Amino acid sequence: MQEKNKRIAKNTMYLYIRMLFAVCINLYTSRLVLQYLGVEDFGVYNIIGGIVSLMMFVNSSMRGATSRFITFSLGKGKADYIQKTISSSIQIHTFIAIIILIVGETLGLWFINNELNIPMSALDAANWVYQFSLLTSVVTILQVPYNACVISYERMDVFAIIEIINVVLKCFIVFLLVLFPNRLIAYGGLLFMVSVIIFVMYIIYCRKRIDEFYVSCHYHKDIVKPMLGFAVCDLFGCGTYAIRQQGINVLINRFFGVALNAASGVATQASGIISTFMVNVLQAFKPQIIKEYSVGNIERMGKLMCTECDILFFFLSLVFVPLYINLEYVMHLWLNNVPAYAVDFCKLLLIYNVFSIATQILQDGIHATGNIKKMSFTIGILNLFCLLLTYVFFILNFDAQYAYIAMIICLSIQTIINLIIQKCLVAEFPIHKYLLCIVKGCAILLLVLSVSEYLSSSIYNPLAKVFITVGLNTLFLSVINSIVFPTYRRKIWSAIKRKINE
Prior knowledge:
With about 500 residues, the chain is mostly helical. It is built from 16 helices and no strands. The protein is globular. It starts with a helix and ends with a helix. The mean pLDDT is about 80.
């Protein structure tokens, strides 16, 4: 047990370091991209990338299935079953990549040229960017099984190193844009080259360092069938999520134009700081949650989920409070020329990401059981309802920011439904303790935000205000969480703090 807790702490710190590095580089890179491309080209790139993401919903469902089945097979500890699972996942993703390429070159290409509100002067460049984005997506699909192997084996140090290389390369190519006459096309092409390099690195590592890694042309029906069954169940939820995300982009494009697509893209990248924190902790805990379920250790599975909720709220609060209070200054410092509505969009997305903590952990717990039909169906219905609600808001002449308010409303409903589903699937799940973690986390966040904002309200120097809110926030959170953390969580939390000190 102690060894498992140490592994979680170690992996959390690897991912935390990777996240800090990635956030700093990405913020700097985003500013340069907006500066070099301009608001119009940046908006075009954002809407084109969204269309390609829409076609990736099949891969999103298979990504979850691949990660779950490889991790579950590791929990069982059968080498031949692990090899078959890895091989089958590579076969499935190769097939998906071919399908996405065909759909992209037909239906997707038609949509780009006939349905989007893109200035004629940028249409030729938009088509080039679309082709590069489509090829990048194909490479991303093929990479999924390799990426899933690294995470399932809990090799987070390797994952962190490769992803740091990824963000460094993406930053480097931005400086190369000045060498090209058409920077929008060049940016799409260079991003494709980076995706190929990262894919090759994952292939080399998996083939050389993972003993059970095995690729075969043999069809394993006993593996492929349940894996596809899991993915099909998840397909409705993932598909409607992609439709919702891109549908909102298209609605903003239709009602407000490309400029607000640029604002949406900037806000998404800025709020990505919060979601990056969340994903890092989720990745550190998820493999062990699935493995504990696979061996029937429901008690520790429940404790891990509650502990994960506590730690996620703590880490996210460290960033959320000072960022939310100083967002306008930080975005001006970051971008210099901030697109209209970007700050309002970002604040709502920050709130959305905090609300999604409880839902994401519950989804991992439900994924561990393999029975995801009810969850996928409810998520899908709520995604479509969110898109409909956004359309109604826009028809009634509400501002563009109401798209994100609709997302928060639907997410709150989804959290309650997922909690009920988790309890139905795992009767021993400590629902009252988990609810307490959510309430406690939200209460602490709201308290610290209110106090920090009140104490810093009289400070007029924006830079001094940033440092003071960061200091106050860290102090308040450390004191409060040292009081409210239960004994079990302190074991993992202490291990994480030891890693930080090291």
